[in-house]
Specification:
Blueprint: H1 3-16, H2 18-25, E1 35-38, E2 43-45, E3 59-62, H3 65-70, E4 74-75, H4 86-103, H5 110-117, H6 121-132, H7 136-154, H8 158-164, H9 170-181, H10 185-189, E5 196-204, E6 207-213, E7 218-224, H11 227-237, E8 242-244, H12 248-262, H13 278-288, E9 296-297, H14 298-304, H15 311-319, E10 332-333, H16 346-359
Helix pairs in contact: 5-6, 7-8, 14-15
Length: 360
């Protein structure tokens, strides 16, 4: 067999190997599963390497970096296969930045965070948003909100809690706090005292249902098997609120929600009191845009909100949703279309989707 025929035979063998497709696609998901070397350059790379694609007849595959180096190849300086993957490096950098934000008395600005990470401000901003789903600024706000919730329960005054959480201006504090807490901070600090929350419990094909409404709108739609458990859940959220039940007019609201559950085609149009972090609200808004009768994967939702790597955070936002059916987290499924966890049980999720397929 002449040299040209041998070259063609080797190229054909490499092209038939499924690992070659990952190299051609520069698939980052394949990083760490194997490495490839190029005989003409003497280097070995990870599958996602952005270097010019080698001719297949010059390629060899290796299970580990050690195997490649034992065969006489040196690591590529571009993709650095013998070091942690770039995504892992970025995740570690962002984790350190998040820790810095959490531990700082005064929230660091973008320039300080980027300098700490050893990146330009633009590059750090892009990497941080890709990993967390939030901009550094919005993450700082979310972190402050978390601190505010804790400090309001332990500080003597709202002002003290405000400064302990890192706010230097009461104006900026009150601009954002009501949307997150759903009430004045003084009322939140008192466990919802002086806040009227009307609620009622009904029954539907999914079991018991509790609907609660503040002055701003519906703040909870809870599903379960035991009405007492649903009431305790509401009480735990607002331990000192003035919970008002058995309101004749409110019963009509329950009937409206139950009718929607049984016949999704009628739609559900209610004023909502949506309380959550900036990231959670972005996720919940994306969920409300999924039409009845359709589904989307967690990965798709992450991509729609501009945070393709925040799939796990999207799932956590879905599980934090307290407005069943109004914010349709039941329409989010796994990549293969199968059902995953649901705050109110997978069987209820399946039943809701079946109803929507039937009526819509």
């Amino acid at each position: 067999m002449d040299t040209e025929a041998k070259r063609a035979q080797k190229a054909s063998a490499i092209e038939k190997d499924p690992r070659w497709a990952s190299v051609v696609a520069r698939n980052p998901q394949a990083d760490g599963t194997f490495y490839y070397s190029v005989t003409t350059t003497g280097v070995y790379c990870r599958p996602s390497c952005a270097a010019r694609l080698a001719r297949p007849e010059h390629v060899q595959f290796h299970a580990t970096c050690a195997d490649a180096e034992k065969a006489g190849f040196r690591p590529c300086k571009r993709c650095q296969p013998n070091q942690a993957a770039l995504a892992e490096q970025h995740a570690a950098i962002v984790a350190k930045a998040c820790h810095l934000i959490a531990e700082s008395e005064e929230a660091p600005d973008l320039a300080a965070l980027a300098n700490h990470a050893g990146m330009s401000r633009y590059h750090f901003h892009r990497v941080f948003k890709t990993i967390t789903g939030l901009t550094p600024h919005n993450y700082v706000i979310a972190n402050r909100m978390q601190k505010v919730r804790k400090k309001l329960g332990s500080s003597d005054t709202v002002t003290e809690a405000m400064y302990e959480a890192g706010y230097n201006s009461s104006g900026r504090f009150y601009e954002t706090i009501h949307e997150i807490l759903g009430m004045a901070p003084s009322h939140f600090r008192a466990g919802g005292a002086q806040i009227d929350i009307r609620f009622a419990i009904g029954e539907c094909s999914l079991g018991s249902i509790l609907i609660a409404r503040s002055d701003r709108g519906v703040c909870a739609i809870l599903l379960g098997d035991d009405p007492e458990v649903l009431i305790r859940d509401l009480q735990d959220t607002f331990p000192r609120a003035n919970l008002i039940g058995l309101d004749e007019h409110f019963e009509q609201l329950v009937s409206q929600v139950v009718s929607f559950i049984e016949d999704p085609a009628i739609g559900l149009h209610l004023p909502l009191d949506i309380q959550g972090t900036a990231f959670q609200q972005r996720v919940w808004q994306a969920l409300r845009q999924i039409p009845a009768g359709e589904t989307a994967s967690y990965t798709e939702i992450a991509r729609r909100i501009g945070a393709p790597n925040a799939v796990r955070a999207v799932a956590q936002a879905c599980s934090a949703n307290k407005l069943a059916v109004a914010i349709p987290c039941h329409r989010v499924v796994k990549n293969d279309g199968s059902l995953s966890g649901y705050r109110w049980g997978v069987e209820r999720k399946r039943a809701l989707l079946q109803k929507e397929e039937r009526y819509v």
